[in-house]
Design brief:
The protein has helices spanning about 15-20, 25-35, 45-60, 70-75, 75-85, 115-125, 130-140, 150-165, 200, 220-225, 230-240, 255-260, 315-325, 330-340, 370-375, 400-405, 415-425, 445-455, 475-485; strands spanning about 40-45, 60-65, 90, 105, 125-130, 145, 170-175, 190-195, 210-215, 245-250, 265-270, 280-285, 290-295, 300-305, 350-355, 360, 385, 405-410, 435-440, 460. The protein is α/β, with parallel strands linked by helices. The model is unreliable at about 1-20 (pLDDT under 50).
């Protein structure tokens, strides 16, 4: 609980010591008691903060919400509700001007940790934290923490589903879209918590989970982090503070995650689609089976990859990671059951409908070239791809060979349309019309162009390679709009 140690807030080293050594219930109770009399500020009222704001306000604590949005943009109903709870509001452009008045400041994951205003606040003794950081510090049950550039949501969901079917209560949240701190007092020591953690969350966190998973690390979010070094360092935080009794699961096929193995403090388990591993799980292309491996023991067949219901080799990799994460906690029969029955997560190569012999898929989560590659490889034929969106300052070149080889018609829209078209047409392997490239001014127009281009037996996939921020609040809203458009055809 080191984040409670800033002198500016009035928390003392003695209090920190008490919090560490007290029992689980007292640890949570004492945390809230320590906040009494402090000025607690929150940056924004999104998914990660709104529940915590309500919880603390209902306890009679002094809570302030500061948000760049105006009252009109937030909505008078929400503002009136918060004010009725005694929450103070600081809205509009100058929302951070008096941040020095806060004893404790909860940032939202969307607020970059290294903003000058936040770093100045820390320098002057303020406590800068987040909902997920506090949750991980107070969580009384085994914590499974999952991160990675691709696959972390599906992997987190699989781990939670396997643990749930084994028995016991499971709490799934974090970057997956659900805050868990408001539930902290209802969580028991025999429960399990599975948290998906983004680089924006991890950059300021020092969690020590029982099990950590890093699926892979590829260029992403460089528009915020600026350098690959900072992005990678943030991902490393998920396992860097584990102890000798913990487990760390790493992707062996990714150069960066494989290099993390030498830094692991506890047990290290690897997973691979390409080669056998000594300790972990792997896929064998020779026979199509998934094997589990333990040091100095003969590998064991677990299930055939073809038994996994959700398509794509990237999802085989997600299963391998989940299998490693639950080793010793979930029976093999349950792992097989989940593989055969689990239907996938929304926005991840999600089947939308079939119309006039054309199958439509929503892969709005494909916000990077590596995700696009995984999605394209999931289909056994050339497809019609809708791509483009917000520019995260990452190169599109890595996906171009796959686009040329696996896409028959590429429909581009959004801020990055020019960049993607230039990357494709400048590639040595590109030939005029292979793929055919069309331009749309909006997602509705892109859907209409796709319908006109598609014939019986074709596949259309929204696989943007970009974030949604140029037109939508997030990839979920974009994906749901796409589904509405497709279902309205």
């Amino acid at each position: 609980m080191a984040f409670l140690g800033a002198g500016h807030s009035g928390f003392s080293a003695a209090n920190i010591h008490i919090l560490k050594e007290s029992d689980v219930v007292d640890r949570r109770t004492r945390f809230f008691e320590e906040l009494r009399g402090k000025q607690i500020w929150f940056a924004g009222v999104g998914v990660s903060n709104i529940g915590v704001v309500r919880m603390l306000a209902r306890r009679g604590l002094s809570v302030t919400v500061c948000d760049k949005r105006t009252r009109e943009q937030l909505g008078d109903t929400l503002c009136a509700e918060l004010e009725a709870l005694g929450v103070s509001l600081r809205l509009g452009e100058g929302y951070l001007e008096e941040i020095h008045l806060a004893d404790v400041f909860f940032r939202t994951p969307g607020m970059y940790y290294n903003l000058p205003a936040l770093q100045q606040y820390r320098t002057h003794g303020g406590v800068l934290t987040s909902e997920m950081e506090v949750f991980c510090a107070l969580c009384p049950c085994p914590l499974f923490a999952v991160t990675g550039s691709d696959g972390k949501t599906t992997t987190s969901t699989l781990i939670a589903e396997m643990l749930r079917r084994q028995g016991g209560r499971v709490h799934l949240g974090g970057n997956i879209g659900r805050a868990l701190l408001p539930e902290i007092e209802t969580i028991g020591e025999l429960d399990s918590a599975v948290v998906e953690l983004s680089s924006f969350q991890l950059i300021s966190m020092r969690p020590a989970p029982a099990v950590s998973v890093v699926t892979n690390v590829t260029p992403n979010h460089l528009d915020v982090h600026g350098t690959m070094e900072e992005y990678t360092a943030a991902k490393r935080n998920v396992f860097a503070h584990q102890d000798a009794f913990s487990s760390t699961v790493l992707g062996a096929d990714n150069e960066i995650t494989a290099s993390f193995a030498e830094e692991v403090r506890g047990q290290c388990l690897l997973f691979s689609l390409e080669k056998p591993v000594e300790n972990g799980a792997y896929y064998s292309a020779a026979d199509g089976w998934i094997y589990t491996a333990r040091c100095a023991q003969k590998p064991r067949r677990l299930l055939k990859a073809s038994e996994i219901r959700i398509p794509g080799m990237h999802n085989v990799a997600n299963y391998l990671a989940a299998i490693c994460a639950v080793r010793g906690r979930v029976e093999e029969d349950i792992i097989r059951e989940v593989a055969r029955e689990f239907g996938g997560v929304e926005h991840r190569i999600e089947f939308v409908r079939e119309l006039d012999g054309v199958r439509w898929y929503n892969d709005s989560i494909a916000t990077s070239p590596t995700r696009v590659i995984a999605g394209l490889r999931s289909f056994e034929q050339k497809i019609i791809q809708i791509a483009g969106g917000y520019d995260k300052k990452i190169p599109f070149a890595p996906m171009v060979p796959e686009v040329i080889g696996r896409v028959k018609t590429l429909i581009l829209c959004g801020d990055t349309a020019d960049l993607i078209e230039a990357a494709v047409t400048s590639h040595p392997g590109y030939r005029e019309g292979m793929p055919r490239i069309l331009r749309a001014k909006s997602l509705p127009e892109a859907v209409e162009l796709a319908r006109e281009a598609a014939g019986e037996g074709d596949i259309v996939s929204l696989s943007p390679a970009c974030a949604a921020f140029d037109r939508y609040p997030n990839f979920e809203v974009r994906g749901r709009h796409f589904k509405e458009l497709v279902n309205g055809l």
